[in-house]
Amino acid sequence: MDRHLVLIGGGHAHVQVIRALAERPEPGLRVTLVTDRLLTPYSGMLPGHVAGFYSHDDMHIDLERLAHVSGMALVRSAACRIDRQSRLVMTEDGTVVPFDILSLNVGITPDLSGIAGADRHGIAVKPISTFLGRLERVLDDASRPDGPRRIILVGGGAAGIELALALKARLRSIDAAGRPFWIAIATGNGLVPTLNGSVQRRARAALARHGVKVLDAFRVAEINSDGIRSRDGRFVAADAVLVSTAARAPAWLQETGLPTDPGGFVKIEQTLTVMDDPAIFAVGDCATVVDNPMPKAGVFAVRQGAALTENLRRTCRHMPLLPHQPDRNFLTILMTGDGSAIAGRGRWFALEGAWVWRWKDWIDRRFMRLFSDFRR
Questions:
Q1: Which domains does the chain possess?
Q2: 3-state class of 12 per DSSP?
């Protein structure tokens, strides 16, 4: 019996599903991709792109091309509503798409509500598609003699550290006209607190080596046109403030009737299915596994790709679904912007060197070639 799978969003997990189902089609299964973004960024390459190591094309997957070579239908509009009773997806341009099986991989949006003025004066790192345009305007302005010189990143996680070092690398090529650039990280909970002490020390040393100031114990309460202010009243001047902290799920998901947590993230089982509907899946940052919540990081979405594909096939074959068991002890590699990188895993493992950067570059380029070079 023919069945219709609808994929909403072209995130890291869904692009793997598209490729896998094109390589080995599931009998009787039609697939439609619904998205208003025809280029999907690969988050692993974002720091390298900011540093100038990768072009815009290098770090983006062409969803229109991928859908075409995979023989799948493409609806070029954002989903805005799901009618679960009638099994329909509605899009912003009025298209109605019926489904038998549905999967969501729609990412996250910034949650700037905890910082006064952040929505007006901050530049959110997520979603990446919006961030890139705003960052390019900052960099264009920085090339002027009277352009911005003081840039602060809010958030001491891996993203904040890599972006700070990437900006240092990128700005070296800009003539500062006698007004040197100053870059800082404001962190309220240390640097990469989820990684081991050796990685933390190496990250701090890399920031110091490249002249990036770390504002420790600086919990940002306000961002205004002149800079940032901490909860304890300290003020630091800035021309541009990038925010890589909290995020939330797209607001429209809360209007679908799907079960969501307080952050608006879709609640799912370990099988990646929505808690009250085994024919609807949700993956990536927009979803939370209730029994085993994980950090919102691209590595988990990438690793969900194969598990999602397998359970979609099992759904088509009326077979029991398999639980996905993500590995919390995953390898993290931090680009330092100078042809080197820091790798860390678990409670003690840490390495640093040019070969680590070459390893990361090879991993990322290999992942992207799965889609740029794909021919059915």
A1: 3-108+249-328 (3.50.50.60), 111-246 (3.50.50.60)
A2: helix
